């Protein structure tokens, strides 16, 4: 079957949009130059949107978060200006790591996902994982070749998000794989990491103080460490939900204030 000129030139988005473009060109009396520019812009935009969708699928982000959706007023210890500066993505270009440290529920994952989403939109490759998932994937590989293949999966992206560091103590083998990954990405790609465990506790986490020191040396050499020590968003939401359930409605208050006729 003979392919159309659009298929031969690989212009699927222009082919789909051309009837509408021609109608607008006729109605608004575009010049040939304007029509050509709009046609090419349509194809470029279509390709960019497809590329973003492909990167988003590969990134495996559990949800879409933004800095605009983060309540900085609830975490006054955080510098909004600093996060906005990180959002310009210079950390990706310089292969700088970002480490969010703090107790559970304070917004560390939200911030890491917001920066990851910004990187995706700008055209960078991203992969999200938890330390538990990462460790399990590497330690269950059945042969060395599969280990190398899975390691490449985590080494390749421009930005690797490792969430929930500190929730699981690693085996000796898992700790070694974690060290190999951080070493492989050192000065070659950015890591965004969230942890509820201070660096002093990483020896226990990895089961090896010497290995933990060597890993942290590489992780923190080029890194922005951001402490998130405020209140828990989840506790805030739970308290709000409880308040809404326990608080009587306006209608109920009005009803209880009415005194029946003849009763004093």
UniProtKB/TrEMBL annotation:
Belongs to the IS21/IS1162 putative ATP-binding protein family. SUPFAM superfamilies: P-loop containing nucleoside triphosphate hydrolases. SMART domains: AAA. The keyword ATP-binding applies. GO terms for molecular function: ATP binding. Signal peptide: none annotated. Keywords: ATP-binding, Nucleotide-binding. InterPro entries: AAA+_ATPase (IPR003593), ClpA/B (IPR001270), DNAC/IstB-like (IPR028350), IstB (IPR047661), IstB_ATP-bd (IPR002611), P-loop_NTPase (IPR027417). This is ATPase AAA. The keyword Nucleotide-binding applies. It comes from the Bacteria. GO terms for biological process: DNA replication. Gene3D superfamilies: P-loop containing nucleotide triphosphate hydrolases (3.40.50.300). It holds the Pfam family IstB_IS21. Residues 94-227 form the AAA+ ATPase domain.
């Amino acid at each position: 079957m003979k392919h159309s000129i659009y298929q031969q030139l690989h212009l699927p988005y222009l082919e789909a949009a051309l009837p509408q473009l021609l109608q607008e060109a006729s109605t608004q009396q575009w010049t040939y130059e304007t029509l050509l520019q709009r046609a090419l812009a349509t194809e470029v935009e279509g390709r960019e949107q497809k590329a973003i969708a492909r990167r988003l699928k590969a990134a495996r982000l559990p949800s879409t978060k933004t800095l605009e959706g983060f309540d900085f007023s609830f975490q006054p210890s955080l510098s909004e200006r600093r996060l906005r500066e990180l959002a310009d993505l210079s950390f990706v270009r310089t292969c700088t790591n970002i480490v969010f440290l703090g107790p559970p529920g304070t917004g560390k994952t939200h911030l890491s996902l917001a920066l990851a989403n910004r990187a995706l939109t700008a055209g960078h490759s991203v992969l999200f994982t938890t330390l538990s998932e990462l460790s399990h994937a590497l330690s269950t590989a059945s042969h060395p070749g599969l280990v190398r293949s899975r390691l490449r999966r985590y080494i390749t992206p421009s930005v690797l998000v490792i969430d929930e560091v500190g929730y699981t103590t690693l085996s000796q083998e898992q700790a070694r794989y974690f060290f190999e990954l951080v070493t492989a990405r050192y000065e070659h790609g950015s890591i965004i990491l969230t942890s509820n465990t201070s660096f002093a506790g990483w020896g226990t986490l990895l089961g090896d103080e010497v290995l933990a020191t060597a890993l942290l040396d590489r992780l923190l050499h080029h890194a922005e460490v951001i402490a998130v020590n405020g209140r828990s968003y989840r506790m805030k939401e739970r308290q709000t939900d409880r308040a809404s359930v326990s608080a009587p409605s306006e209608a109920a208050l009005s009803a209880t204030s009415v005194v029946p006729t003849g009763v004093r």
